[in-house]
Structure formats: structure tokens, C-alpha cells
Amino acid sequence: MSVKELTINLEDYIGGVAIWPAYPAIFSTVKFEDDPNLKPGIHVHARHSKGGRKVIDDTFDLVKIESIEQNKNKSISLDYSSAKTFLIANLLGKKISSIKCDSCKSTIENNISQVVGENEGECIQCGYFFNISNDIYSTELKEVFKSLTSLNDYPDLKMKTRTLDLNLDKYSGGISLMTCCRAIIWIGEAIEEDGIHVHGYDNERIRFDSTVGKVVINGLEILPEHMKMLSVQRFLELRVETTYCDVCGNPHFDKNENALKPNSKKQCTLCRSSSTTHLVISNPMIDILSKLNEQCSLPSENNVIPQTL
């Protein structure tokens, strides 16, 4: 299979550049196969002028970013593996940093197992052992961000508040719901948004393309925090179900380490009652997706997390 590559010089796009990890939609009824926004990889937006049209709006397997730190000869290559690690760390709420190895002073590059488990291991440059806080995700990408923006930390995202009551019949080509993730690179005047990103299509033409705070489909309420955690759980191929509070019937939503490891002690986020279940990770999205599949007459395997241990 050929590798789709992009080499981009950031100085050529004064209207702004945004680079995100791209990954399949959490829920999709799209009826065509060539939507570049639904493919895993690295998604890039770029504009030649402020407020101008996007001259790049596509997903790639490999992106080479040129013109880093005002050094004309310096570049960095971003592949899907590093983008996926950035994505998981972001969705888990890790603090993005660039920790230096005590021995060789190179930046420690965390892998996925260190992001979701104990943040320790050997420096890939010199082999020196490191042990840093589990709340931190260390990556060279943080240094790239700082050099391009002159900011020490990523700014807060703007959480959208609009609730979208989505009528599936309005979009003959189908709809897609995607988890919002912080951009790896964001150069421009606009503020990054957080929430649920929605595409609606007439045949293969996109008709609705916006980010909202909550989506309601046929009375089923979909929240961004549930989608974000399910994205991580899908990547890690964890077994996830939906369990319910014995007192009020509200679905359980496991958070933090309980969202990554089967557990039997659940606390209701609504009435705060405690329940004991079988060993399982609970996320309300599993039953919601099952109901949506049934309502939309989709195959049972569509939009469902792999049930592997």
C-alpha cells in the first residue's frame, strides 16, 4: 500500500495551519467510502491568506513540517504512530510537556504504553532510565509548538455549548460524529474548539460541518466526554459495556484509571450511589451506539467497539 505524504513549509501559509490526529468517526451513517475526513492518519488544514479558502484539507500517512525554530534546514516528520500517541494523551487529559533526559539531555518521547500506564522506561537516545509523573506526556512536539507560537503551554480549548438535535432524515448522504482533539500544530487567529464535530452530507457533498457541545439523536443524548473516552478505549481494544445504577438507573461512566481497567465498583455520576457489578469497564456510549445502529438499520458490527480482552 502506498504512503500518502505531505511536505509543508509553514511560511507558505500565512493564513494559518492546523494539524490534527485523524481517526474514524465514533458514529457514522455515511453511505460513500471516499470521505478523507474519516480515515486514520494526520489531517491538515492550510490557508494562503487570512480568512481565505483552505488550499489543503486532507488526511495523510506522513507529514513533514519544514521551517522549525526559524532554522531553514530543520524539519520534523510526523507519522500516525506519534499522532495517535498525542491523541490518546490529550483525550486522557495529560499535561503536554518536553522532559529532558538527565543523561543526554534529549527530549523523552513517551510511547502509548507509558501514556496509559507507568511513565517510566529507557531514553531512546542513550538508554538512561527515566521515571516521570503519570500526569505528564513528554514529547518533542511540545518544543515544535513552542517554537512556532512563542507560547509556553497549549491554550485552553473553547468548549461549545450548543445542543444539536440531529434529524438524520435531513442528510441523504449520512452523518458522522467525531471526537474533538487538540491540534498538534495550530497557527492562526481562530480559537480551537472542543466538543463533538459533526458532518452531514447530501450524497457526497458536505452540507453541515460544525462543532457542538452535545448531540441528541432520536432522544439519545451524546456527550463529548463519553465519546472521548470511547475513542481511547477503541484504540486500546478494551472490553467495554454499559452498566446501570441500581438506584436511579443512570448509566455508569468509568473515569481515570477505571476507564482503562475492568473494575466491579461503580459510582453513579447522577445520584452518587455505589454499585457492584461484574468486572467490566462501563461507558454509556456502548448502549447508545447499539440503539442507534438498530434505529438506523445498520449492521450490528458498525460503530461498535471491538469486544476483545
Strand order of the largest sheet: 5-4-2-15
Overall shape: globular
Main beta sheet strand tally, sense and closure = 4 strands, antiparallel
The number of helical segments is 5
How big a fraction of the residues is strand? 35-45%
Classify the helix fraction into a percent range.
10-25%
How widely separated are the two ends?
A: 29 Å
Low-confidence runs (pLDDT<50, min 5 residues)?
301-309
Oligomer: single chain
Structural class: alpha/beta
Radius of gyration: 20 Å
Topology order in helix (H) and strand (E) letters: EEEEEEEHEHEEEHEEEEEEEEEHEEEH
**Averaged pLDDT:** 88
How many β-strands, per DSSP?
23
Write a concise keyword list for the protein shown above:
309 residues, alpha/beta, four-stranded antiparallel sheet, 23 strands
Summed up:
This protein is α/β, with parallel strands linked by helices and 309 residues long.
Question: How would you portray this structure in words?
Answer:
With 309 residues, the chain is of the alpha/beta class. 16% of the residues lie in helices and 36% in strands. It contains five helices and 23 strands. It has helices at 80-91, 112-116, 140-149, 224-235, 285-295, and strands spanning 5-9, 16-22, 27-28, 41-47, 54-60, 62-68, 71-79, 95-97, 120-122, 129-131, 136-138, 158-159, 163-165, 174-179, 185-187, 193-194, 196-202, 205-212, 214-217, 220-222, 240-241, 263-267, 274-282. The strands form eight sheets. The protein has a four-stranded antiparallel β-sheet. A four-stranded antiparallel β-sheet has the order 3-14-17-18. The chain has a three-stranded mixed β-sheet with strand order 1-6-7. The chain is globular and about 55 Å long. Residues 301-309 have low confidence and may be disordered.
